[in-house]
Amino acid sequence: MEFQKDNSFFSGRFKSIGFAFKGVFKLITTEHSVMVQTFLAFIMVIAGFLFEISRVEWMMQILATGLVLGIESLNTAIEKIADFVHPEFHNRIGFIKDIAAGAVMFAAFAAIAVGLLIYVPKFL
Question: pTM of the prediction?
Answer without folding.
Answer: 0.86
